[in-house]
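Work package 3, deliverable 3.1, input record:
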Amino acid sequence: MSVQSILKVQHLTKIYATASGSLTVLHGVGFDLSAGCTCAIVGPSGSGKTTLLGLCAGLDQPTAGTVELDGRDIGRLTEDERALIRNECVGFVFQNFQLIPTLTARENVLVPLELRGGVVREQDAVELLARVGLGDRLDHYPAQLSGGEQQRVALARAFSNRPRLLFCDEPTGNLDDDTAHAMVDLIFGLNRERGTTLVLVTHNLDLARRTQRILRLRGGAVVADEPTGA
Amino acid sequence: MGFIFKMAWRDTRASRRRLLLYSLAIVLGVAALVAVGALRDNLRGAIEEQTKGLLGADLVVTSRARLTPEVETFIKGLGGEQARETAFNSMLVLPAPQRGTRLVYVRAIEGGFPFYGEFTTQPAGARAALAHGLNAVLEESLLVQFGLAVGDKVRLGSAEFIVAGALQKVPGESAAVATLAPRVFIPLAAVTGTGLLREGSLSRHRTYLKFPREFDVEKLVADLRGRFRELRLGFDTVEERKRELGQSIRNVNSFLSLVGFASLFLGAIGVASAIHAHISQKLPTVAVLRCLGASARTSFSIYLLQGLGLGFVGAGLGALLGLAVQVALPYLVKDFLPFTFEFFISWAATGRGFGAGLVVCGLFALLPLLQVRRVSPLLTLRSAFAEGTGLRRDPWRYALLLVIVALIFGFAIWQAERWQWGVGFAVALLAGFGVLAGVAKLVAWLARRFTPRQLPFAWRQGLANLHRPNNRTVLLLVSLGMGTFLMLTLYLTHDTLLSQLRLAGGNDRPNLMLFDIQDDQVEPLKKLLAVGGTPVRQQAAIVTMRIAALQGRPAGEILKDTRSRIPSWTLRREYRSTYRGGLSDTEKVVAGSFTARAEPGAARVPVSVEESLARDLQLGVGDKIDFDVQGVVMPAVVGSLRQVDWQRMQPNFFIVFPEGVLESAPKFHVVALRAATPADSARVQQAVVREFPNVSAIDLALIMQTIDGVYAKASFVVQFLALFTVVTGVVVLAGAVLIGRHQRVRESVLLRTLGATKAQVNRIILAEYLALGTLGAAVGALLAVGANWALAHYVFSLKWVNPSPLVLLTGWAAVAVVTVVTGLLSSRGICDHPPLEVLRQET
């Protein structure tokens, strides 16, 4: 593993047991991401993009192969140990926002910090929300925010624990074009500011081209690994 | 920990009112346990405080026969201060304008009774009038019933008494014992003047004894136990009475506690179901928390805390309600208590009820909470991951189920005193729930397979709700069915007991009995009754006797034998036997043959013994039995065993002698007759008492009225608690409706978007709750009929009669209506918003 490598995937295979037999979603996937880079995973529906993202982020365990996140093989860890790693160095942005509906925007952003325990600086959350343009919506609940606003809260939350890796799953999939553009600018802006490694799953090739590297998946395997020159 | 508390609290923001409603499911169960526990604590306290007032003396010696000189000497030799009483049933004749008669229990007293406790009268101090003259203190209810006042005259036998006051409370007895025959106290010296007690008359003779404070009464009775038995004397001490009372209170308390527990159990199932629905809605939040780094323990703790909070609120509200009910219960049970007491709030019972509520609620809430541990963070990416959490194979789930079952058995056994009863109750409770849950599953299956396609759309949709995912069929059928079952069982049992009596007096059967008739009064009485148009249907001579020996072994020896399995009451009691030449229509010989007339000179007289008594005495046909007929030993042999229908209103006997043996023994007679109307019955009773003052009458209508009254009071207490179960069912129902509201709102909006009218949506809701209400009530009613049969057959040994269809229909309809109304009320507002608004809220 190179010194700068933050995510290293080797021979990754994921097989699901279904009623009609086993289903191989990923087989033999491998790649390496250095710290601070940006990468898009693209491919048709069912190609295994989301499964790959889930495995890289430690949300699931592979059937075979390894995922090393920040130098730790997360496949060997228990679910709670993986949760600890997620809290320490991973941020998420989901297509359907995944905000906690009973918490305000400010509280949603604070959750990762509160989970760590210790003293929580509310000001951090306020600043992040102001950074994403929601300084006046701190105490609004998700249901009181538009889709774009909810996604911006999710982005602020993703950065609240100062992650080393940010995983985005179709972050603009539920947004209109204008809102999506603004959202993408925010993601890349924050990523640059904070030196975060970005892994993006998307169907949108224009969005993918804004990253430094594109991994193309088809039938559960990497069929192309291309630098974009971005 | 701080985050867990904070998150648990924040997460309830949108659902606090709903969670509060869920917590109400256990409120009534906890309230019932608190109230019942408090009542027990109060009664225990009262017994300790009023120890000697429970009996009115340190020792009471009772004889069912007139005291022989030997017994007199023995009792006098016991020492202490003594007071005497002779008690018997008789007819009280009321003055004009009432001119009525009433069966009463005469207690003729002499001396300082009661030595302890209070003889409370209105006006106060009327007890002093019983020291002399022809004064009487009458049960207060008699004065009220007949509009009597102090100074009025009443007649007992040939003597006229002046009413000196109304009896309100006397040590040693509860008001309920006097319901059939109200008590009348007179001076002992006045008994002779009444002419009521003749040879063979039924009477009890009590001696009340008061000893110096330091005297050990328990030691005295322990030393003299054998002598008491030998002289066939009963005795009662304060300690004995305390034990008996304590046992009765424990029994009643166990029963009431178990009814309360059933309600708590039902509520806990409601809570578990509500938490299950709550957690199902929270799974995405749990997944997000896991994504953000929350451990399984952290996310589990958040929702466990919510579950415990819910239990805390429910148990707290229940404890508060229980405190209020505590105040009411003493008034409900006061007629059954032989003492009055100052009520105090039992904080111990309140704490126990609260604790039980919290533990039960916590355990039941844990069942659905277990799935939180297994929520995958992948759920944030794909909802399909919500499935297959492997909960069914979770060993913790099995362990928890085991703990719950153990808790049910443990609680039932702890409350029931006898472990067999506790096990029986727990098995019955689990079986009841099992049957209802099984029926619910069957109903869901039937609804899926056999809903007719030709039914209108709304009805098909409503019935489909019974089987579709996340249905509430099992929960609602169990709660409604259990509530209906408990309520109807109580009602039907009441009905069974009364209808049995109605049957006993129906079909032209005798409904009036006259007893204590002397030999020389039989013929004139028959003539009087014939002239009055109510001829004698049956007549029996009664000879009192005791068992002297069984199979040649003296009764006294068997009584002393600690290994003997023969119940001692069978040897100590006085038997009222008869002689006749044939069987009556209530009897059937089941072994041997009935002898109509004794052979002159036979060494042993062949007698017929009632089969259950023969079982107790361990006798069979051909076995020897010696009777002591008022001092004369009569050797007999068991010639036959009889089955007797005791429910009939006519003289029935344990032992029947053949003719030709007992005719010359001292005896009295009983006759049974039928009065067509209550007015005829009253007229006959008045005429008989006028001519034959010593003859007493007992009327079937009076027995029915008494049983009805006593049962009504007793069942009120039980129904009061059973009502808690039914109301719990309604709360669970309302909770269950609200649980499904989220889903309903979406469906209703989709249907309305597709063109359904509000009326159609309401009809769908109506169809579902109508089906659930009618089915739940029907299954509950069927279980109640089964329980009613089992109670009639095994507990009351009565012939089971078909329950009144009207009662069943009314109960069934009431539960169905309550279900539909609750369902519709809880679904209010689903159609009141524009679809767009609701769709927006749901995103």
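The radius of gyration of chain B is 34 Å.
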